[in-house]
Amino acid sequence: MFDIPDFIGWLLNPENWQGRYGVPNLIQEHFILTLSAIALATLIAMPIGIAIGHFNRGTALVVLLGSASRAIPTMGLLFALVMAFGVQLRELAVVIALVAIAFPPLLAGAYAGISAIEKHIPDSATAQGLTSWQLLRIVEIPLAMPAIIGGFRIAWIQVTSTVVLAPLVGLGGLGFGIIQGLALRNFDQVVASALLIVLVTVLGDQLLGFAQKNQAFRLGHLSGGKSK
Amino acid sequence: MKNNLKLGLAAIAVSTLGLAGCAQTSDAIVIGSQAYYSNEIVAEAYAQALEEAGYEVERNFSLGQRDVYVPAILEGEVDLFPEYTGNLLQYFNPDASETEASAVYDALTNALPEGLSALAMSPATDQDSYNVTQEFAAANNLSSITDLANLGSVTLGGAPELAERPYGPTGLLSVYGVSVEFLATGDTTVESLVAGDVDMANVYSADPRINQLGLVTLSDPEGLFLSSNLVPIASSALDQGARDAINAVSLAMSADDLVAMNVRSVEEQLSASQIAGDWLRSEGLIN
Amino acid sequence: MNWALNNLELVLQLTLTHLIVSLIPLAIGFVIAVLLARVTSNRFAPAITGSLGTLYAIPSLALFVTLPVILGTNFVGPTNVLIALTIYVVSAMFFSARDAFASLPKPTIEFAQAQGLSAIQRFFYVELPLATPGLIAGARVAAASTISMASIGAVVGVRNLGYLFLDGFQRKIADEVLTGLIAIFVIAIAIDLALWLLGRALTPWHRRVNV
């Protein structure tokens, strides 16, 4: 017969909050992996995306990368890199896989943001005497923020979802509860872990969403045209 | 009115097809397997033997751990599953104390719930075992699990579910007084052991890498691990002819046969279907 | 790529299952998204976009194992994966579908209305054909994501190309994992091409204009 798993009971059990595989440690691991990957990817993707948008060269790269990256299965990439790097370097392999996954949306966001700025705005800014660097810093990047943050939202979702699979290569992260729970048929654990994952992911997405709207609202009247 | 009649006839036709489809597949023997390549080879061997004997077989492999498929068998979704006597006995009776092979088998047949039966046990074994590298064994003078008590805390690697198994960390502590720090290394267990990320690892005894990498299997004098032979678990849907075919396969498979097939899987990288087929042919069980 | 050649039958079998597990949600999700986008009034659109956006944010494995609780299905097996993937397709396509319908030329619609076409006739004979390019574009994006996401279903027992990743990793056969990656990539490209061709076939007037 069907009964709802007692995930609340699992969450209230203090044992599940202690130790190497207790919830706090898993959350910490999850965040470290996700945030370091996104940070690294940002360092690479932001300059490139902004440059492509600013100079309007190499746009084909963004389009191609965008559509191609959607077709790459994250689990396969994870396993392939861990096997290539060897188990001893598995953290590095996983981070690289995550960077590869975060890169396309961050790139696309930066490019979309910069390229969507109507020509007359940077033109009038340059006419007023702004240097290229000032133009970028004071005008283009702030106007591109909503799209850039949009890129972060997608990257956050993709990377977090992939970190859920990390236990399959011997790492931790919030996915551990699901993977171990499935094996033990402990569905209280499975559902509780799944809910935690959903909570963390959606929370991050919503926070970024607020930031996105905040930026768009603030600069809505400046962009001159419609803002989504 | 005419439209409604057509619709009604269509509905009847579709549901008849649906029911016919259901009836057809319920005649087939559904064979499941764990998400473990070795188990899949054995399941495939049973499948091909049954097909040779004229039965229709439906393969439903990689279902996961027994916690998932035991209910499936009880609900009639799966008819046959290759299992391991000791592990399965401990699943139903965590306090089981039998360790010797035939004692475990007898206890298992008693412990199985209504609707499940254990067919003939195979001489082939594949069980959990604790292993260390040769260097680690030499450096710390280890030959049995008891020797571990001399060391401080030891790191143990294995599948995530090992943390909750009776022969896992809790068992090591209560039976041997050995405290371990557990690391869920999953499918990276052997590599982690060799790399030194963990001191000790749970490696299945039929894993070819124990020999290949010169791993030392620690002996288990206190019987933490129950003897675990290959045994097919069947639902009541199987008739005598099917059971005979399956038993023939089980009894023909020696422990070395199983390891040899595992080696073929990992070294020659062949599919379970190919390996099982070749072995069955070499034993004269199929053509 | 010897491994792939030696195990061709298995790979083809898994590819077939993978296609079925990806295309069914794609088709059903497409229909739902299109209908939902069309009938949603402007008042409710932000709320629906928001909730669908939230659903899209949920990691696939987490959704695969949470649906059984809500829907009462088995934890293991294709049902959850099919439903979850359909939800993803709807979330992915809703916004682009709304966009596609919103950017239809008003005069054309009004003309059709004036001609006496009913709402349903307008939808099938005017709006849908005109919105096709936008809908196909959205479908192509959804298709690529769905095909690669379906592989995670292997973790809950769906026997598709994702199995090559799990088994390949277990046995440490790099070729097997690579085969899975390539196979999924190839299928994604093939479906993308098919959708593009379908789009062209359904909109012959676009081609005629350029002649």
Helix content of chain A: over 70%
Helix content of chain B: 40-55%
Distance between the termini of chain A: 48 Å
Per DSSP, the total helix count of chain A is 9
Radius of gyration of chain B: 22 Å
Sequence stretches where pLDDT stays below 50 over 5 or more residues of chain A:
223-228
Describe the overall structure:
The complex is a heterotrimer of chains A (228), B (287) and C (211). Chain A has 228 residues and is an all-alpha fold. Helix content of chain A is 75%, strand content 0%. Chain A has nine helices and no strands. In chain A, helix 4 crosses helix 5, helix 5 (90-115) crosses helix 7 and helix 8 packs antiparallel against helix 9. Chain B has twelve helices and ten strands. Chain B has helices at residues 2-27, 37-52, 66-74, 85-92, 101-111, 134-140, 169-176, 189-195, 209-212, 240-252, 255-268, 272-282; strands at 29-32, 57-60, 80-84, 116-118, 130-132, 154-158, 180-184, 200-202, 216-217, 230-235. In chain B, the strands form three sheets. A five-stranded mixed β-sheet of chain B has the order 7-6-8-5-9, with helices on both faces. In chain B, helix 2 links the parallel strand 1 (29-32) and strand 2. The radius of gyration of chain B is 22 Å and the shape is globular. Chain C is mainly alpha-helical. In chain C, 82% of the residues lie in helices and 0% in strands. Chain C has helices at 2-6, 8-39, 45-57, 60-71, 78-102, 106-115, 119-149, 162-171, 174-202, 204-210. The radius of gyration of chain C is 20 Å and the shape is globular. Chain C starts with a helix and ends with a helix. Chains A and B meet through helix 8 of A and helix 3, strand 7 and helix 8 of B.
